[in-house]
Amino acid sequence: MTTNGGFEPVFCTIVPPHVLDKLAQHEDPALAGPARRTLEHDAFERTHRRLTTVIGAPAVAPPKEAAEDKPLRTIYDAKHHQDLPGKKVRGESDKPGKDATVNRAFAGLGATFELYLKAYTRNSINGEGLPLNATVHYDRDYNNAFWNGEQMVFGDGDGEIFLDFTIPVDVIGHELTHGVTQYTANLTYFGQPGALNESMSDVFGSLIKQYTLGQNASEADWLIGAGLLAPRVTGTALRSMKEPGTAYDDDVLGKDPQPATMDGYVKTGRDNGGVHINSGIPNHAFYLVADALGGNAWERAGQIWYDVLTGGALQSEAGFSDFAKLTVAQARSRYGEGEELQSVLKAWEQVGVPSA
Questions:
Q1: What are the catalytic residues (predicted)?
Q2: Does residue 59 register a pLDDT over 70?
Q3: What is the pLDDT of residues 250-264, one digit of tens each?
Q4: Which of 175, 198, 284, 340 does the annotation list as catalytic?
Q5: pLDDT tens across 5-24, in order?
Q6: pLDDT in tens, 303-348
Q7: What is the pLDDT confidence band of residue 47, given thresholds at 50, 70 and 90?
């Protein structure tokens, strides 16, 4: 149940289509092949999710054994096939096994659960103890990770451009946050609402990494997907919240297209209206707020963003300015007329989004 009277289970991937499109056109079949197969699969999954939206997704009730302050995690192994969820390989009470991918997925689900519980007293993705399920070793050379409205799925990457998608904990947090958005504001996955949807996942994915590593705002790298790119790639991550447009500049992947301000806003019909590109603008606004306030970014800056996402006033069709105005109102409501409010106002002004 969401604030908008229902939820729309969408298919959300960490690697945007424009990156895979570039790879798919490469003359080397070792690079182009996995990218093409990933694009084909992602297109199929998006269609499947739309059908699920029309038909109605099954409601998932938290099992009775789930404790209010503990996650209930299950990891499955697809064994390089596409059937979900696959074979169960680790439950909540099981000890770590030899498969590092399984262990990382398990830990990442736990890190996400902990940030939402400890920082925002939210019990799992839906606030009601939703079990956290993930499938690893999905397909062969699958260059993505996704939330499909019900669970997490991780590819192993092709080893040439992308490595194992369980490596960056912020990728796990990013995808699970799509679930939080699904169960709260349910931001439409197109245009500015879609870019806000993606930005929410980047914001809280980054906060989950910072919380896990014990980093304050100045210590954090503000990168999304650091450690995911293979050694041959000229780049540090998929995206940068601190400096959008600088995450990679590679002869195969091309240059990071994210704008930091509305001056660079990209109008396109691809990628659901550029949701992974224009998300750089609200991403940068959040970074500016967190940097100005200092300390732990999940506290004041993160609290404002969380309050707006889950508070009920954010409509599913909200644009950047709608969201900005709500963050201003929330900063004033929670913290008064002090530095929190001033930081929020200044950040939106710097990225060119009206907030008054």
A1: 175, 276 (proton donor)
A2: no
A3: 999 999 999 999 999
A4: 175
A5: 444 556 888 998 889 999 99
A6: 999 999 999 999 999 999 999 999 999 999 999 999 999 999 999 9
A7: confident
* CATH among 2.40.50.100, 1.10.390.10, 3.40.50.720, 1.20.210.10 for 191-351: 1.10.390.10
Fold annotation for 12-183: Elastase; domain 1 (3.10.170)
For residue 321, give the nearest of 193, 158, 142, 166 by alpha carbon. Answer: 193
Q: Where in the chain is the domain with CATH 1.10.390.10?
A: 191-351
d(CA 180, CA 176): 7
214, 347 in Cβ contact below 8 A? no
On whether the CB atoms of residues 331 and 344 are closer than 8 A, the answer is: yes
> Which entry of 18, 41, 178, 276 is annotated as an active-site residue?
276
Query: Which amino acid makes up residue 14?
Result: I
Give Cα separations from 292 to 127, 216, 238, 342, 345 (angstroms): 30, 12, 24, 9, 11
pLDDT band at 41 (very low <50, low <70, confident <90, very high): confident
Identify the bridge partners of residue 88 per DSSP, sorted by sequence position. Answer: 76
Residue 198 is a catalytic residue: no
**Which of 9, 126, 111, 136 is closest to 66 using CA atoms?**
126
Total H helices, total E strands in the chain: 10, 10
